[in-house]
Amino acid sequence: MKKAIIAAWFLIFFSPIFAILMFKNIPEARIAGLFAGSVFLCSAIFIAAIFFQMFRFKSTVFYAAILHTVLFSMPIFLTRMLNWQKDFSSLEFVGIPLQQMHKMSEAFYMIFALFLAVDSIRYYLWYKKQKEAAAL
């Protein structure tokens, strides 16, 4: 499970870097958004699966990943894909401009990373306790 947590940390830090690289290196913003959005969606789902497997419904990361996916990543991604020809700045989801949702998503992503830190510490303490119990 240590490898799974390391993978989750890698994804949390890799996803924004990947998005920045996509937008800097792909001239067409829609194509860059397609790649970046796909990575955010897949990484959040992967992280949710990892932490659900480890902690079931006791994981803060599980809930953060699901919330980030349902409230931000999926609506932004799907609205963008369904309105391919329109300018991103003109798009809305349930009356909220996508640009504003994207900013809220960035803030929530930081909370997501904080929850990953909390669950990583919880896992470390649990693992340490298990090792000590096995040594007795």
Structural description of this entry:
This protein is mainly α and 136 residues long. The chain has one domain. 82% of the residues lie in helices and 3% in strands. The chain is built from four helices and two strands. Strands 1-2 form a two-stranded antiparallel ribbon. A hairpin with a 2-residue loop joins strand 1 and strand 2. Helix 3 runs antiparallel to helix 4. The radius of gyration is 17 Å and the shape is elongated. The two termini are 23 Å apart. The mean pLDDT is 91.
| Strand fraction | under 5%
Q: How many domains would you count in the coordinates? A: 1
Sequence of strands across the biggest β-sheet: 1-2
Biggest β-sheet description: 2 strands, antiparallel
Shape: elongated
Q: Ends: how far apart?
A: 23 Å
Unreliable stretches covering 5 or more consecutive residues: none
Q: Tally of extended strands?
A: 2
